[in-house]
């Protein structure tokens, strides 16, 4: 059977398709222009909350101050193939301050939504940061929330203090008591733990415990920094203690185990209070090898 020869498209069809393409491109360009106009309106409407520094846009939200690198935005707009369309991380500072020695970082792409064109998402991001308090408990605000919690810690006088109780309850199933400056929670094997952060002389935190069926709290250490490495960040410490004492018992050690943690907690664990240090050390080394 003789194949039918495919004829080139007519000049009229080509012209129509070119017109359609140009119309689509014009629509995209127009949407970008509208987005930049919206961004300009936001900046002009909030001169005390949105400012331009030498190399960044500074946004003062209800909970913190944010720095957005201008150069990164321009690169992504001018060449999205090379630089991509996602946002770089922004720096998060204490509210009303730009202390470069104390800041955290967050990726707030989710505030704008992944389906929103990049030009629109810049304006949406800034508008979202102005109203950051609305995103603290939002499912889309996880990275922003983590950055704020890391920045302020459990300080009951910080801008996020009113939101910490719910966050700590949901994240760690723990009770945050701003009056006593403590966080109490359950560990494994029926143990309960309480971290205190009200002692200005302590570099770390106080740590108290209750064994199963024990009524009164007992002090294990008044300053975790004196007995544990990397114990000055309370939420990192929470992660480790939530798995204690299970993570210091030789047969159930895991990635949160450390020799210092074992030496601190094993003496109060019934049945393991007489394990010598060398045995603990060998168990930790074995666990680290298996994890590696």
Task: Produce the secondary structure layout.
Layout: H1 11-45, E1 50-52, E2 56-60, E3 64-69, H2 70-78, H3 80-83, E4 90-94, E5 104-106, H4 109-112, H5 118-130, H6 142-152, H7 161-172, E6 175-177, E7 182-186, E8 192-196, E9 206-210, E10 218-221, H8 234-242, H9 259-265, H10 277-291
Antiparallel strand pairs: 1-2, 2-3, 3-4, 4-5, 6-7, 7-8, 8-9, 9-10
As an assembly, this protein is single chain
What distance lies between the first and last C-alpha atoms, to the nearest angstrom? 66 Å
Counting helices, strands and paired strands, the structural category is alpha+beta
- Give the strand content: 15-25%
Q: Categorize the overall geometry.
A: elongated
Total strand segments:
10
Describe this protein's structure:
By secondary structure, this protein is of the alpha+beta class. It has two domains: 28-151, no CATH class; 164-291. It is built from ten helices and ten strands. The strands form two sheets. The protein has a five-stranded antiparallel beta sheet with strand order 1-2-3-4-5. It has a five-stranded antiparallel beta sheet with strand order 6-7-8-9-10. β9 (206-210) and β10 (218-221) form a beta hairpin. α1 runs parallel beside α5. The protein is elongated. The model has no long low-confidence stretch (mean pLDDT 83).
């Amino acid at each position: 059977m003789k194949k039918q020869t495919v004829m080139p498209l007519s000049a009229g069809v080509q012209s129509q398709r070119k017109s359609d393409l140009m119309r689509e491109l014009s629509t995209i360009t127009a949407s970008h222009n509208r987005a930049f106009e919206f961004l300009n309106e936001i900046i002009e409407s909030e001169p005390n909350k949105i400012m331009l520094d030498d190399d960044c846009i500074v946004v003062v939200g209800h909970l913190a101050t944010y720095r957005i690198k201008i150069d990164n935005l321009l690169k992504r707009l001018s060449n999205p193939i090379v630089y991509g369309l996602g946002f770089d991380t922004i720096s998060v500072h204490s509210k009303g301050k730009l202390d470069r020695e104390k800041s955290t970082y967050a990726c707030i792409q989710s505030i704008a939504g992944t389906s929103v064109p990049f030009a629109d998402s810049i304006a949406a991001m800034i508008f979202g940061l102005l109203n950051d308090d609305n995103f603290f408990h939002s499912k889309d605000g996880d990275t922003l929330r983590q950055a704020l919690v890391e920045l302020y810690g459990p300080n009951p006088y910080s801008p996020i203090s009113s939101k910490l109780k719910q966050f700590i309850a949901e994240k760690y199933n723990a009770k945050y008591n701003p009056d006593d400056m403590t966080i109490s929670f359950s560990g494994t094997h029926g143990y309960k733990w309480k971290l205190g952060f009200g002692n200005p002389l302590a570099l770390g935190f106080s740590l108290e415990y209750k064994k199963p069926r024990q009524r009164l709290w007992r002090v294990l250490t008044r300053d975790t920094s004196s007995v544990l490495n990397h114990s000055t960040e309370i939420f990192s410490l929470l992660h480790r203690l939530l798995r204690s004492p299970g993570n210091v018992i030789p047969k159930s050690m895991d990635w949160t185990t450390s020799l210092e943690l074992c030496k601190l907690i094993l003496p109060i664990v019934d049945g393991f209070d007489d394990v010598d240090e060398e045995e603990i050390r060998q168990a930790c080394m074995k666990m680290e090898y298996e994890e590696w």
